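For reference, the entry.
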Amino acid sequence: MDNAAQRPPSGTQWTIAADGHEAVIVEVGGGVRTYRRDGVDYLDGYAEDEICPGSAGHVLAPWPNRIRDGEYQFAGRSLQLDLTEPARGVAIHGLVNWVPWRLVEESADAVTVGYDLPPTPGYPWPLRLRTRWSVGAGGLRAAHEVTNTGAEDAPFGFSVHPYLRLPGVAVDDAVLRVPARTRLQLDARLLPIGATPVAGTEFDWTSSRPIGAARLDVCFGDVLRDDDGGSAVTLGAPDGTDAVRLWADREFGWWQVFTGDSLTGERHRRSVAVEPMTCPPDAFRSGRDVVKLGPGETWRGAWGVRPGV
């Protein structure tokens, strides 16, 4: 086959740019592949000819993280999802991260992409998803809308999976702040079995401090809210000369932080995944913070990345 005729693994690429900020949004998964300011990358993305690694930049819906055994109940039904992480026997990261999203609207500094999720045996509710990605003086912004187009209530959760990086700063040296009072305790399958306060423990990042040797794949809850109801995780350089802030609005009450220790090759511990989530892992089973989206109802949430101190 002629190489010129080959499509990138992530499909069509849409580049948006303004005020020195540039991002590339992709068709497969409808996520963000790269984001930079003045030529400096603040997301650890992936190449155009590469299959998305480690869920980098993916949209995770209609649930984030893992569901134990892929089994859950809702409105009197017992449902079974495909086990998409077989080694742990779980269904992970929803149903829209590997599907082709379509272009809805495009301009120089913004692009809107959409996907209509059909009902399936494991998740028998149709959803219409739309994301408007934009860049400008305030950084990268993603505004999401999810509408239940069916005739019944649907369980719903949402997250995204960007990896933050700072130029020339190793993960061990990066200074982290996570505005959360609790963390989930996990079993060997990375599924929650309890919650505990972080105060006075090695997991307390309510005040900025270096990551050091900490190995994190942790879900934090009971977030400390800003005045607008949202919250933000910050990754900073040890000398205070640079930082990157991932903010999320009031719809997101949980933060997953992952230092990339299980990734292989050059991506091993190269950047920090910071995932704003509307609900914790295994929420379809626990019911905790699951959105019950009624027929015709639309959920809206926004988050973004803001470089600089």
Notes: The chain has one domain: 3-307. Helices lie at 283-286.
